[in-house]
Structure formats: C-alpha cells, structure tokens
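Hello Y.,

Per our agreement to keep a running log of every chain we model this quarter, I'm adding this entry. I've kept the format consistent with earlier entries: sequence first, then predicted structure.
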Amino acid sequence: MSSNTETTFYADAVLFDMDGTLTDSISAVEAAWGKVAQDIGQDPAYVIAATHGKRAVDNLAQFKPHIKQHEMDREVQAFEESILFFADAYNKHGPGSAQNSPVNSGATTPALTPSSSNPASRTSSRASSFVGQLTQLAPFRRPSFLHRVSSLLSMSPTIREADDSALENPIAEEGSDEGAGEDWKTMIQKKHQLEAWQVEAAAVDRSVRILPGVKRVMDSIPKGRYAVATSGAKTYAFGCMTRVGITPPEVTITADDKRLKAGKPAPDPFLLAAKELGFDAKRCVVFEDSPSGIRAGVASGATVIAVCTSHERAKIENCGAHHIVDTMEQVEVAPEGEGENLRLKFTIKPKPAEQRREAAQPVQSSHPLAAPPITAPQPELISA
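Predicted structure for the entry above:
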C-alpha cells in the first residue's frame, strides 16, 4: 500500500500491463466501446465501465453474443482498428492535421490485413471521455474499415470544382466565422468519404500518450528483464506502443495469444510472461492500473505496484496491490550485480508533499522480496 516513507525491495524481472500503465489511450478505447454500446442499444457509460481492463474477445462475447466463434478474431481486429482510428483521427483528418505532422501509423504497426482475405484469421475510469454525438453514428461496417478508409484517403476523389479551393485548406483559419466548424466537418466528409461517426471522431483529440515516468523506468531495466502482458490483442497493443515510441519487448503477451486459457483477472497473462522471460512470477514485479489487472497480478504471486493513472485510489486500494503510487515517477529501478546474479532494486518514494514532511531515514520493506544489498548472503525465498 502507499506509505509516507521510502521503501526498497528486490526482484528479478518486471511485467508491465500496457494501457493505463505504460500508455494512455483511454479516450480512444472508451470512444470505441461507446460506439459498440450505441450499435447494440446499450448505455455507453455502463459498457465502458464493464469492459475496462478486460480482453476485447471476452467483452465482445458478452455484449455481442451473436458473434460466432470462427468470426471472433476478425471482429476483435476490426474493433481494435476502430480504437486506433479514434486515436489518430484528430491529427490525421481533423484540426490537428494543420498543427502537427501526420501520425505515422503504418511503418511500425503490424499490417492491418483486410479481414475479407481470410475470415478465420485474425475500457471505465472516465466514461465522460467518450465525446461525440452518438445518435449520429452509422453502423460499423466490414471488412476492415481502417484498411478501407486508408485506401480511400490514398485516392484522388472526384469533387466539384466549386469545392476545390475550400478543400485545399479544410481547417478554419483564425478569425473565421462561428460556422466554420460545421463547414470543416462537411468538407472532410466529402473529401475523404468518411462516415458520420468517423467525422465526429476527427473533431476530438484522443491521441495515445506515454504516461509519466514510464520511459525512465523502462530505460533503467536491462533487456530480457521485462515483458508486457496486456488485455489488448496485437493490433491494438503494438499500435499503441509504437505510437508513443515504445519498442514492444520480445516477450509481449497479447490477448490473442493462443497459449492463454483465460485473460485478466485470471493470472494467466502474467504467468506466461514470467515463464517466457525465464523467471518465477513470485520473483517478478507487476505494474498495473485496473482492478482486474491488479487482481491478476496478485493471483500470479508477483509483487504488484498499482498506478492511479486510470482509476481513483479508492477504486483500486482494496484489490490487493502491495504498493500504490500516483504514477511511475514515484518509482526507481536500478540493476545490481551481473549475469545470473543480477537483480533489480526497486525504490518507491512517497508523494512529494509527504516527502517534504518526512523526517525519518528510508526504511527497508518488510515485503518477502525485500533483501539486503546483493553482496550480502541472500535469505532463502519463503513461499507465501
């Protein structure tokens, strides 16, 4: 749990959740689930809350039970493509396209193969972040809409001469009249042949962002000592990480990994990640943000550090996490030793306000993974 004093302990490896822990794509995810809710006539706030931290395959099976088993991989990919469309739309097609260079989503993201080529192939903390006029959303179409939209955008649409000059500069200039926003939406809908919901998506910035402290923590861990275990499938997981400059580690366990028998809150993703790294999960540290993910980490036997990046502390403090921090900025990781003797020293610092009030010296944690410096004899690990 959280503490007013500095805490240290040791472990062998780190298992990261992705969204809400490494990246923040919550607005895009919630918009995509809000779109699903509208399609099935359910309350978006309810669907968003019910789906957070769980695999899309499990959520789609719950909310769209008509999907046949052989269709599920295709449906999951199409859903995850919709997340990435929501994430990119503002900067690729909306006002952000005039302020920033376009987001390059194709170079390092796994190929989004049209689902029609092989039919058998191939979350709520802030429900208010689902912004848009849901009543205007058109039904979701197959095949792979992101591939279709990308193809359309690469073509030169035939448009009336009267529209040419306006489409050359679709973003309203500063000082334009108040109706410019609606004119902009009409113009991009014509130019790119987007559906109403796609135009609405372009009006709101839902870009994927890296969370505070993440880059520093990841950079401090040697290669082969950390993995990602996420409830996202490969399309979404790799797409999010590459968008914020994170290179997916060699061991990245995604929801569509056929070796998994169950997703979070079952411990399977973390157990598989630890096994692939070559370490006992009990000697690993899990970073998580959602209740289901925290419970999965605890069930795996790992030491769990919960981050309050997507949920209020009150929503996660009773899920069993060993430590709770606001962000990874409160965590330092330092390798000690070499080769087989290498271990990771974790230091959890109190929040700045608490730190200023703290007068006592840092103390050693009483957690089972706590240990003296690596040069000292090591106690035998006692199973919980």
